[in-house]
From TrEMBL:
Residues 145-381 form the PABS domain. This is S-adenosylmethionine decarboxylase proenzyme. The active site is at residues 63, 68, 83, 299. The gene is speE. One of its GO terms (biological process) is spermidine biosynthetic process. The keyword Transferase applies. S-methyl-5'-thioadenosine binds at residues 174, 249, 280-281, 306.
């Protein structure tokens, strides 16, 4: 070969948008495409961007294969770069065209490093040889760097995962996926947004349940809207005083995915005290009788897709109607920093429905949620107030149940709000939001 390398620039068109957004399929295809062409794969690094798009590179002994996809155009730009005679990059081209179900591909081969244009300089190979050789994994396994990324314009959370997608199905409402992350265990995502991980789900689930249960000690009937991962009902059912716990989840695939891959979170789905309903929580609450529940927990995802209607005044008004005279509503109320505008708007709504001094905000540290700081709202229809609670009972319960986050001190501390959150809650208004929000301006 009269050149050091062969570089094929490839354009794949009319590919399946789904495949162009499937980081696991793309990473596997690129690795196999290299091996099929006779290359020795050293490692791979792939990133799945949210809301869509994948970028990655497979490093081979004979150079590299790289890709970037635009699922919205069914398009992939691929670089196949090999050096030496042993690998035929066109074999990779043919393999990938099929793997991506490309309608058609255009390509151009460049010879890189024309020998006639190069002058070899003598350099002391020995000196280079003193460098310790990079070891390939003992069992020949390649080091795979496959990343899941949840991001908005300016902020991203990336988690490395094993490259094996444990679960991926589209329900009528959303895409339900489970990834095997290396740092946080199995992770449930809905439409590319992190819902919970095995390593930190307990923070969210202990705080959304035990705070109201120790400040509203007469609660007998609880309703959870959303919460299909099962963590919230798991925690509620630790409280023997609850005679009935009803879970209304719109999407049975979320329950299926968690039973399979987040079993510790889904452990209570078989509990006889649990009344599990697969239906739209908005319909359920509209048809529910007045004053039926002591505690209503809105364990929703973000205000998009099926969950959008769970962030409206009409919905909260219905919740208020379905609470007993001393009932309490708890919601996950987003991040004061990441969703400042939504945060301010929903607290304004809670206050209009429950009363100015009946609404309280508390915080918890959840590492895999955007900005790591998440909030919950406590709205009381009657006299219940979050900081009037049985500290001893809370301490005893936390110890006996082996809780990992909630205890009597955290219960109290969670309501100690930093000044910027107080300002957002008291003043609200665009100026305050802009002052503290990390949301990208064009949202
Ligand atoms: N902890 C998570 C968070 O803060 O992002 C939320 C957990 S949970 C998985 C959210 C659940 O709400 C999802 O399973 C979703 O299917 C469900 N959901 C969304 N809209 C719903 C609706 N209208 N009625 C009932 N469940 C709904």
């Amino acid at each position: 070969m009269n050149a050091l390398g062969r570089h094929i620039l490839v354009e794949f068109y009319d590919c399946s948008p789904d495949l162009m957004n499937d980081v696991v399929h793309i990473e596997n295809s690129m690795v196999v495409a290299a091996e099929t062409a006779g290359a020795t794969v050293i490692n791979s690094t792939f990133h799945h961007f949210s809301p869509y798009g994948v970028s990655g590179v497979v490093v081979i002994q004979e150079s590299h294969l790289a890709i970037h996809t635009w699922p919205e155009y069914g398009y992939a730009a691929v670089d196949l770069f090999t050096c030496g005679e042993t690998v035929d990059p066109w074999v990779s081209y043919t393999y990938l065209k099929e793997a991506f179900q490309a309608g058609h591909g255009s390509s151009m081969e460049l010879r890189r490093g024309q020998l006639s244009l190069l002058k070899r300089t003598d350099f002391n190979l020995e000196a280079l040889r003193n460098l310790p050789p990079k070891t390939v994994e003992a069992d020949g396994a390649i080091t795979r760097d496959v990343w899941f990324t949840e991001r908005d314009e300016n902020i991203a959370l990336s988690l490395k995962h094993s490259g094996n997608q444990l679960y991926k199905k589209d329900s009528p409402y959303q895409r339900v996926e489970v990834y095997e992350t290396l740092a946080y265990g199995n992770m449930l995502t809905l439409d590319g947004m992190v819902m919970c991980t095995q390593k930190d789900e307990y923070v969210y689930h202990e705080m959304i349940t035990h705070v109201p249960m120790f400040s509203h000690t007469k609660a007998k009937r609880a309703l959870v809207i959303g919460g299909g991962d099962g963590g919230t009902v798991r925690e509620l059912l630790r409280h023997e005083q609850l005679e009935e716990v009803t879970l209304v989840e719109i999407d049975e695939l979320v329950i299926e995915a968690c039973k399979l891959h987040l079993p510790e979170t889904a452990v209570a789905f078989g509990n006889p005290r649990l009344n599990l309903l697969i239906e739209d929580g908005i319909q359920y609450i509209n048809n529910c009788e007045d004053g039926r529940y002591d505690l209503i927990i809105v364990d929703s995802a973000d205000p998009v897709g099926p969950g959008e209607g769970l962030f409206t005044a009409e919905f909260y008004q219905q919740v208020h109607r379905c609470l007993t005279a001393d009932g309490v509503m708890i919601t996950q109320s987003e991040s004061p920093r990441f969703n400042s505008a939504v945060f301010v708007e929903i607290y304004d709504t809670y206050k209009k429905i429950f009363g100015q001094d009946k609404v309280h905000c508390y915080l918890a540290a959840i590492p895999t949620y955007p900005t790591g700081t998440w909030s919950f709202s406590y709205s009381s229809k009657g006299e219940s107030t979050p900081l009037r609670f049985d500290r001893e009972a809370a301490a005893k319960f936390s110890k006996e149940q082996g809780l990992k986050y909630y205890n009597e001190e955290i219960h109290r501390a969670a309501f100690a709000l930093p000044n910027f959150v107080k300002e957002l809650l008291q003043q609200g208004g665009q100026k305050t939001i802009e002052a503290y929000s990390v949301e990208s301006s064009d949202e």
